[in-house]
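The pair is quoted verbatim below.
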Amino acid sequence: MQIHLSPRHITLTAAIHSHVSAKVGHLEEISGEILAVHVVLCHDERMNPKKAYTVKLHLALPGPDLHAEDSEADLYTAIDKVLDKAAQQLRKRKTRLKEHTKHKLQRAAERKKSRG
């Protein structure tokens, strides 16, 4: 899995990079299908101080990609919240795929039972 960080008006430090890498590692535990992650870290001094840091996340997956975004006063809080949103979307996607497969197998078994 590739992790691509794009800082906008922020100096990318080793601490920020390691924090994002650790959090993205947790996403990989939820779904091993993640191909790439693109994280955009923005700081806008003109914005409301409560939403000065914006983090945008793009997860490349087989099928539809996932996107999440959050703005907070603290960069690390924004990173945590956006990755929590992405984790929730991954869990929902995983459940949806499991249910789809389960129903598909049930329909196949019912068809086989009705024929035989």
In short: The mean pLDDT is 92. The chain has one domain: 2-115. The radius of gyration is 19 Å. Residues 64 and 93 are 10 Å apart (CA to CA).
